[in-house]
Amino acid sequence: MEKNIALIPGDGIGPDVVAEAVNVLNAVASKFGHKFNYETVTAGGCAIDKFGKPLPQEELDKCLKSDAVLLGHDLSARLNFVLKKHCLVFAEE
Predict the structure, then answer these.
(1) Is pLDDT of 64 > 60?
(2) Helix and strand tally (H, E) in the chain?
(3) What's the number of CA atoms in the CB half-sphere (13 Å) around residue 16?
């Protein structure tokens, strides 16, 4: 199985959480013969600093073309709203 996963590290502890989640996914891929392709998406506070918006269209497009989105911690309620609006399935902690 090969899947494309968009990674949104987010802010605060998010980058560390996403990095460890990728380690787990890589271990699963290795054990079961899967392949995961990752693409990092700039969103949340990082995107506001860089683009002036929490989730610019070009970054959202990366999410929409992926099979899954792995979202780290983010304090932006606007980002969560935008993702929920475009995703078929959304899970939160």
Answers:
(1) yes
(2) 4, 3
(3) 2
